[in-house]
UniProtKB/TrEMBL annotation:
Keyword hit for Oxidoreductase: yes
Domain of life: Bacteria
MF terms in GO: oxidoreductase activity
Protein name (record): Chlorophyllide a reductase subunit Y
Lineage: Bacteria, Pseudomonadati, Pseudomonadota, Alphaproteobacteria, Hyphomicrobiales
Enzyme nomenclature, EC number: 1.3.7.15
Signal peptide span: none
Gene3D superfamilies listed in its UniProt record: Nitrogenase molybdenum iron protein domain (3.40.50.1980)
Keyword flag Protein biosynthesis: no
UniProt keyword list: Bacteriochlorophyll biosynthesis, Chlorophyll biosynthesis, Oxidoreductase, Photosynthesis
Annotated metabolic or biological route of this protein: Porphyrin-containing compound metabolism; bacteriochlorophyll biosynthesis
Amino acid sequence: MSDPVIHQAMSAQSGAEAGLLPAQPEALGCHAGKAELKKAADAAGKSEVLARYAADYPAGPHDQPQSMCPAFGSLRVGLRMRRTATVLSGSACCVYGLTFTSHFYGARRSVGYVPFNSETLVTGKLFEDIREAVFKLADPANYDCVVIINLCVPTASGVPLQILPKEINGVRIIGIDVPGFGVPTHAEAKDVLAGAMLNYARREAEQGPVQAPRAPRSDKPTITLLGEMFPADPVGIGMMLAPLGLAAGPTVPTREWRELYGALDCAAVAAIHPFYTASIREFEAAGRPIIGSAPVGCDGTADWLEAVGKTCGVGRAQIDAAKNAVLPAIRAALAASPISGRITLSGYEGSELLVGRLLVESGADLRYVGTACPRTRWSEADCAWLESHGVRVQYRASLEQDLAAMEEFAPDLAIGTTPVVQKAKACAIPSLYFTNLISARPLFGVSGAGSLAQVVNAAISGKARFDEMRDFFEGVGEGDNAGVWQGTPVERPEFRDKFRKAVAAQAKKRKSEEMV
């Protein structure tokens, strides 16, 4: 290590001798399995972290929902923040996959990586390498914060990010463990980092003056919005809050460190996504009340404005004025964009219940809502409302439960994750991918009331096209057509003739259209 600052750092070996580092167990690979990794992590000094995760993000009824690597959620939060460096510590294959996924979803920043092998992991050299990387990155001219994320193997081996310096040259250092065997979903991993950052920012604010947020401070009390949402939604929520004498505050996860101070300095917190347990704990420690649900649809907006008004001590006249300003327009938007058809809905973003409410108020025959996120008291109002309208709600839904619901209810449209959409298309059921086509739309207020109808109705109307494709591709991917030959391939004249007829029919159709 040539950097003179790093030479002053305590080596991993000397730290272990002083009793500051846990004894390093034999290195475990990802192949060891969840039970063995968790057992190793407990033995390596990570039991407190895992116990907190188990309380914050309870599993069940099954082991874990099937979704992407949870660490993607924390990585995404870090990569979307200005002046924040994000570093991964984990197996190279995991880092490659996470980096690829982050850029697939639009990240335009580098992802840091501290490589390791069995020797550096067992001897503690990996921690020394992480510390060296942190010192090299901690340049206040470029960064406000450096985030280091332990993936499964470093967590299981007890790599002690908690003893990294909390600050270097004025740059904040935040180390978190986000193992797949401790954090159930990537949505909750967003909360792991957001909560850690709020904890750091809250302690800074308690010690004295902090840097003002970039955006001008509102002269009205603000409502912090908890959970990622469509960019136009905070603006719409702000317009609904104005008659109450309130304003929309920052959205957490934030896009810059200094916004965390503005988020903490609020009148109340709206848990738009109700699974941010660690973040809610920090807001409660700061003395901020929490409001569940969201201004979705007509009923949801009325209840939410009522809850916000009462929480913030707003008078009855102002609450009624706020409702009268927006509810008629929402009713009109819902009536102008009706949805007709039976639908099943599932996803892992955390907004599934809110989308379900909007579909029901739009006239859809919604039968099932499955979410990979856990049940919390902040989503109770949404769950109760959906169940009162005949919708089955499944928290911590597995792929098998989502597919069983689709088979049971035979919907006109299945909204879900990639494997749900894949299965639906194989069954000639119109389908939409929740993350890219549904959650990436405005959901709240007037703009949200009519946002789903066009895409949903267009998908439902394509049923005949799905039947045509199913008939055309019948047998593909099955039996001898599965791509695995059991014997010598033979020519199938019936499939050849079927294909030729279909091509000829398409050519004839195009020719007639050109003549017209």
